[in-house]
Write a structure and sequence with these properties.
Blueprint lengths: L1 H10 L8 H14 L10 H30 L3 E5 L9 H7 L3 H10 L4 H5 L11 H15 L4 E6 L7 E5 L2 E5 L12 E12 L2 E4 L5 E4 L2 E13 L6 E10 L7 H5 L3 H4 L1 H7 L12 H30 L8 H4 E6 L6 H12 L4 H9 L2 E4 L10 E3 H7 L1 H22 L4 H11 L2 E2 L5 H24 L10 H16 L12 E3 H8 L3 E3 L2 H11 L1 H6 L4 E3 L6 H7 L2 H11 L21 H26 L8 E6 L8 H16 L3 H7 L3 E6 L7 H17 L9 E6 L4 H7 L5 E4 L11 H7 L3 E4 L5 H8 L5 E2 L7 H9 L7 H11 L9 H5 L15 H20 L1 H14 L5 H13 L8
Parallel strand pairs: 1-2, 1-10, 2-9, 10-11, 11-15, 15-16, 17-18, 17-20, 18-19, 20-21, 21-22
Antiparallel strand pairs: 3-4, 5-8, 6-7, 8-9, 12-14, 13-14
């Protein structure tokens, strides 16, 4: 019955809507005929897979219709290339976007299950780690919802980043198992695969054309995941690449001889490219694997994009209009190799000239910068890249030469010191000799300068003086030779030769954007200032956003119903400007009452979740204070936990009556992963868990203070925690967070933020109102001065900060030696010392701001008003707004609504 209905649906997308009965039939069909489990039961795991496959059927109909319409109309399409996609669970999002939540809930009830229980069986897709990947996923949701023609490209990581376990020793990492039982959302495309080459050599053919031959070859296989839009037929594609080699690569002779490792070494070498997201790169093998990952993503994606362009073009392929049909967005520097790879394909495979290929590439690729941290602006060893990707290094050298010529054309060669400084900052190749053509220019300029200098010296000699003797002539010749020798940038033989990927992105991209107003200004004024002076028209701001479908409509149904009632419709889900209507009701007692009730229901769910995951019992009537994000020193989880230690110490010094009067009860919740080789971040995780173990078992403190670290933080955990949060901490060192997006999710759900003027905090504070944001800390423009002050020995730490460090060192939180952690906050200079992230500087401002938080929370009417105004002010931070801006200003694509 269901499949008859699906045929009708395919014929007329407008008329058929599956009901509970047809959905139940579809689920039963998949349970029986596409089984991954035994046929004699219908337990939750089986129910999930059957339900997901049922929902996928509906997605495929829209997906195919979308694909066919784009092919037919040959519209310009954007391609978003990202190393990460932090998708989260897909079931509730898919049926919600299809407007089938009710039908699926009723169908599963008939089959003996609850929809929420079934949905919890789905593992999070382990395709990302932090904000970079989550932003990419929000963007795909918005692209589909707004009917923009676009695809995403990524890698299909078998084991993800890692699954985090919290033990008595802190964080431990184990491999993710999200693909262990298969992924019901993906469809393997056995007919879509591309060769990806490593190593080898470049030869020049008789016709003068370059060929990259020999080396190691793998195949990139496509796995497609449908991305549905909300209340629209448009369903776009996320294409993920997995790597393999042909069965012929299995050495059967070696296997039968007992050399099993040799037999399957080629297979394992290919497969491991897509094993892990961000493999450790401290070893040469780790660096090589990371570079292989990046090239695999870029090569397979570009080959696919070009194949699709050629298919749409038919027999007459016009490469000149390629940028009129294709926009490639590089999400950070990981996909930088898209630039030389596109050029390689156009020249070596399609036969275009260098000038044509370079021009087309400059009109096709755009770059989003996500960081101001120098260590995160990727640099690759030239030696490694020459070995792994020899043809691409040749192309990068040509791009570097093009850039140098542009710089010389702009600034001239008269002032060689100025020119040398420009080249030192802007070149793609760092600590590498100048190209011959440019070196000759320098040499010629130096010769002219040397001759002019000698002429001037000769003019100064009086007629009475004798002719220069042979010794003087020899000295002059040596002087000219010495001056000619400086005709190139000085190289430091002790430093490695590097390829600066961010500089390559800026040089080749037609647009460069930051992701928050303050970040984009830092990009222009500091990170890429010389490029900005040269090409100011390239630089833009595109403040990040989050999808309101996943991050409030589906994860917070109680609050969503309230918003719909008080704004008059559900239009706010796709038009978040409607949230501003809530401002005029912020003081309304009826709204405040239901608002508080919804928040408490969510807090009860969080309390139950925390007990299940950690064993800790918390009071839902306490303030829920949350900091969940990647563990990094600049994000300053250390400042938060030091503040908690100070709070705990003050409580211990008081009588029970004083404690109760002096402090608002708090549950302090942490979550996030420390990168496996980031030792200091792992020390911070250990510190937080040790503080929690002490505080949570202290009978004198009871429910006044709890500290809970939630293991294995991911999208699904966020969807649980954020709706129940009341205070959220976004406390990075000012000027170091590009944007942040969790701050937007918390504000959208009526959570009040405490933070610095960093990233998107600046704009959030503007929109929600200064009185509804707890601000503390140094400003971005003050940071360098404060670090210099520290280096000069002028910083005087606050006595309260010294008190906390001494308390930690006293051993109150257990036997672990925290000297390295506390020592990083001390001294005036040295690696891992001198409090680079200004925890000590901002500590007094932070704890005083926390006192204001307590004061505001005691007045629940005031707090609820602040909460309402945060939701109302979050309207700007929808990824729909961000995507409209990308589409209009960078990609220049228009919405395409299916007929």
């Amino acid at each position: 019955m269901f499949y008859v209905a699906l045929i009708k649906f395919a014929a007329s997308l407008d008329t058929f809507v599956p009901d509970a009965a047809s959905v139940a039939s579809s689920i039963k069909y998949h349970a029986e005929f596409t089984p991954a489990f035994s046929p004699d039961s219908f337990e939750l795991p089986k129910a999930f897979y059957a339900t997901a496959e049922s929902a996928r059927d509906s997605l495929i109909i829209n997906w195919n219709a979308t694909y066919e319409y784009y092919e037919k109309t040959n519209v310009k399409q954007a391609y978003y290339v990202s190393m990460e996609y932090l998708q989260g669970r897909a079931l509730l999002n898919a049926i919600g976007n299809l407007e089938l939540t009710g039908a699926y809930a009723e169908a599963l009830k008939k089959l003996g299950h609850n929809l929420e229980d079934v949905a919890r069986e789905e593992p999070d897709a382990a395709l990302g780690n932090g904000g970079l990947g989550r932003l990419a996923s929000c963007f795909l949701d918005s692209l589909a919802t707004l009917n923009y023609p676009a695809w995403g490209y990524g890698l299909r990581y078998k084991y993800g980043l890692f699954k985090q376990h919290i033990t008595k020793d802190g964080q431990e990492e184990v491999a993710e198992d999200w693909l262990e039982m298969g992924n019901p959302w993906e469809i393997v495309r056995n007919d879509v695969s591309y060769p990806v080459k490593f190593y080898g050599e470049v030869i020049t053919g008789p016709d003068g054309c370059k060929q990259w031959v020999g080396g190691e070859n793998v195949m990139a296989m496509a796995y497609d995941v449908p991305i549905p839009g909300y209340k629209t037929k448009t369903t776009i594609n996320l294409r993920l690449w997995s790597t393999k080699v042909s069965p012929e690569a299995f050495d059967l002779r070696a296997f039968n001889a007992g050399d099993h490792a040799k037999a399957y070494s080629a297979m394992k070498n290919a497969e491991k490219i897509c094993y892990i997201l961000y493999p450790g790169d401290e070893s040469l093998e780790g660096k090589t694997l990371r570079l292989k990952q990046q090239y695999t993503l870029c090569s397979a994606s570009l080959q696919d994009i070009i194949a699709r362009y050629e298919k749409r073009s038919g027999e007459s392929v016009n490469w000149e209009i390629f940028p009129d049909k294709v926009a490639v967005q590089m999400n950070d520097t990981h996909p930088t190799l898209c630039i030389p790879e596109l050029i390689r394909i156009l020249i070596d495979v399609k036969g275009l000239s260098w000038e044509q290929a370079w021009n087309i590439t400059q009109r096709t690729v755009a770059y989003t910068n996500h960081t101001v941290l120098p260590e995160a602006l990727e640099k690759w060893s030239l030696e490694l890249m020459e070995e792994l990707l020899p043809r691409h290094v040749e192309i990068i050298r040509l791009i570097d030469e093009e850039l140098i010529q542009t710089i010389i054309a702009e600034y001239g060669a008269e002032d060689l010191d100025l020119l040398q400084e420009k080249l030192k900052q802007m070149r793609i190749l760092d600590n590498i000799e100048l190209p011959e053509s440019v070196a000759e220019l320098f040499a010629e300029s130096e010769k002219i300068s040397a001759v002019d200098s000698i002429d001037e010296e000769e003019d100064d000699v009086s007629d009475e003086e004798t002719e220069p003797d042979d010794e003087n002539e020899q000295l002059e010749e040596q002087d000219m030779e010495k001056k000619t020798e400086v005709a190139s940038i000085e190289l430091d033989r002790k430093l490695p030769k590097m390829v600066r990927m961010a500089n390559l992105c800026v040089a080749a991209g037609y647009a460069v954007n930051g992701v928050a107003e303050i970040h984009s200004e830092i990009v222009k004024d500091e990170v890429f200032n010389e490029f900005y002076k040269l090409w100011p028209e390239k630089f833009q701001n595109k403040t990040n956003g989050v999808t309101p479908r996943r991050w409030i409509r589906f994860c917070n149904p109680d609050l969503s119903k309230i918003i719909t009632k008080w704004t008059g419709s559900e239009d706010w889900v796709v038009n978040t400007e409607k949230l501003m209507i809530l401002r005029k009701f912020a003081d309304n007692e009826d709204l405040q009452s239901v608002w508080r009730e919804a928040k408490r229901r969510n807090k009860v769910k969080v309390a139950s979740f925390l007990r299940e995951k950690t064993g800790y019992i918390v009071n839902p009537d306490a303030m829920f204070d949350v900091q969940v994000k990647r563990i990094h020193e600049y994000k300053r989880q250390l400042l938060n936990i030091m503040g908690i230690v100070y709070r705990y110490k003050k409580m211990k010094e008081m009588s029970p009556e004083e404690r109760k009067a002096g402090f608002v009860p708090r549950v302090c919740i942490f979550g996030g992963k420390a990168f496996a080789t980031y030792i200091q971040a792992k020390r911070i995780v250990k510190f937080i868990t040790d503080v929690g173990a002490t505080v949570n078992h202290d009978p004198e403190i009871g429910d006044l203070l709890k500290v809970v670290f939630v293991p294995d933080y991911n999208v699904s955990v966020a969807e649980m925690l954020i709706p129940g949060s009341e205070l959220s901490q976004h406390i990075s060192t000012a000027g170091m967070e590009a944007s942040g997006t969790s701050n937007m999710k918390f504000a959208m759900n009526g959570c009040i933020l405490i933070g610095t003027l960093d990233g998107a905090n600046v704009e959030i504070r503007q929109e929600v109102g200064e009185d509804n944001f707890f601000l503390f800390g140094a400003k971005a423009h003050e940071i360098n001065g404060l670090r210099n002050e520290r280096a000069e020995g002028k910083f005087v730490p606050d006595p309260r900060f010294e008190e906390v460090k001494a308390y930690v060192r006293s051993g109150v939180f257990g036997p672990y030696n925290y000297e390295e952690l506390m020592g990083s906050l001390e001294g005036n200079e040295g690696y891992g010392r001198a409090d680079y992230f200004l925890v000590g500087k901002d500590f007094p401002s932070y704890i005083e701001c926390q006192e204001k938080v307590d004061e505001a929370y005691r007045d629940q009417k005031r707090w609820t008003k602040m909460s309402i105004l945060n939701t109302a002010g979050s309207y700007k931070f929808s990824s729909d707004r961000t995507i409209h801006e990308y589409a209009r200003d960078i990609w220049r694509i228009d919405p395409v609504v299916l007929p």
